[in-house]
């Protein structure tokens, strides 16, 4: 009696090879059907075939439904109801060339099953990244500072006379402008200027102010076109210190003496000319409200108010032109022309500052400021015109 030994279990590798061979045999036994030319009309551009009508109206009828009859009915339906879809005819195709008959069925090439087993693509490793999204900053900040001095010495025996003196002037201009890039702008500018000078001939005041200004300009605009904005503008200005004349104790000006506030509504035009060398804006306001206040009643008449009144209210039109022209890397001209009229009285301020920049920190300024105000007391020599001018040299810084 023969003893049957138990079969040795196959390894995982052997079972895998057997499964591949079985799959290969199954693929080799698959019979590839020949290509059916009857399906061609379904995929070609819609064509008018003569045989369709012949077969439909033929006397020889069959009870069985074939693929050919179904195609004929579908094509006949198109010919009768949608002839606009027919692109060509059978005669036109025959003129181009006869149809080729496919005798041999296309069989797939034998391919090793192992070739079909593609290597696994290594999956990319994803590392968690900390993504920071920053909120856009629509604010733009800038500033301009300078501190300049002037010294003048004249000997006692100078043939034309005169006196020695020292003077200084400091200026700070700060700007904070908002632009959300969606037709809304809000501009803010604060200007502060203060200057002093000495005078040996003045027995009452050894130090007096030569420049004194505190001014805020704010405007909010809504874009109308590329360069024009509907704008509301607010201008408020006064000074820091008391203003005197030589050997005169009378106070001619002081903080909020006067205080001027102008609110206007109009249009702004953005200036960008000469390859952006001349920039700025022009504000035209047909409607403007002007408010003037003095706390010292003895200054009322001097600043165009009725005697004994602290305030003045009037309505008119206003125009402000604020430009900066960079003539070169060393020379620039900043000008501001402000005009207001009630059609009974008018004010015009024209400030001009010519800056000569020697290097990043050293500059010289020439300031010319003509002014017209027919609401103030008329001067016997200059009429309603006033003029201020100075030149200085010193330190400057911009950002």
From TrEMBL:
It comes from the Bacteria. InterPro entries: DUF3078. It holds the Pfam family DUF3078. This is PF11276 family protein. It comes from Segatella salivae F0493.
């Amino acid at each position: 009696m023969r003893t049957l030994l138990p079969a040795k279990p196959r390894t995982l590798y052997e079972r895998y090879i057997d499964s591949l061979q079985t799959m290969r045999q199954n693929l080799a036994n698959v019979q590839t059907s020949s290509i059916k030319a009857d399906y061609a009309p379904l995929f070609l551009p819609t064509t008018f075939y003569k045989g369709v009508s012949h077969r439909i109206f033929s006397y020889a009828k069959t009870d069985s439904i074939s693929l050919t009859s179904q195609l004929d009915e579908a094509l006949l339906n198109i010919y009768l109801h949608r002839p606009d879809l027919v692109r060509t005819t059978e005669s036109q195709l025959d003129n181009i060339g006869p149809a080729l008959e496919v005798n041999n069925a296309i069989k797939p090439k034998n391919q090793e099953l192992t070739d079909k087993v593609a290597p696994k693509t290594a999956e990319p490793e994803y590392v968690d990244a900390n993504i920071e999204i920053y909120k856009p900053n629509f604010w733009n900040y800038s500033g301009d500072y300078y501190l300049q001095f002037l010294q003048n010495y004249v000997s006692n025996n100078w043939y034309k006379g005169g006196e020695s003196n020292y003077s200084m002037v400091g200026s700070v201009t700060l700007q904070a402008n908002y632009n959300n890039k969606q037709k809304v702008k809000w501009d803010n500018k604060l200007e502060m200027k203060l200057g002093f000078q000495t005078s040996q001939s003045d027995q009452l005041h050894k130090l007096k102010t030569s420049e004194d200004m505190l001014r805020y300009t704010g405007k909010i605009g809504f874009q109308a076109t590329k360069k024009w904005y509907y704008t509301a503008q607010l201008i408020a200005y006064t000074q820091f210190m008391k203003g005197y004349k030589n050997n005169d104790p009378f106070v001619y000006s002081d903080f909020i003496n006067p205080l001027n506030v102008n609110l206007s509504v109009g249009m702004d035009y953005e200036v960008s000319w000469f390859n952006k060398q001349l920039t700025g804006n022009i504000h035209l306001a047909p409607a403007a409200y002007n408010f003037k206040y003095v706390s010292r009643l003895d200054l009322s008449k001097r600043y165009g108010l009725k005697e004994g009144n602290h305030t003045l209210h009037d309505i008119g039109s206003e125009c402000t032109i604020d430009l900066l022209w960079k003539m070169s890397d060393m020379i620039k001209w900043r000008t501001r022309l402000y005009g207001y009229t009630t059609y009974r009285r008018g004010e015009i301020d024209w400030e001009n500052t010519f800056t000569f920049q020697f290097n990043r920190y050293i500059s010289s300024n020439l300031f010319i400021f003509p002014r017209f105000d027919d609401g103030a007391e008329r001067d016997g020599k200059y009429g309603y015109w006033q003029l201020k001018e100075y030149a200085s040299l010193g330190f400057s810084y911009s950002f």
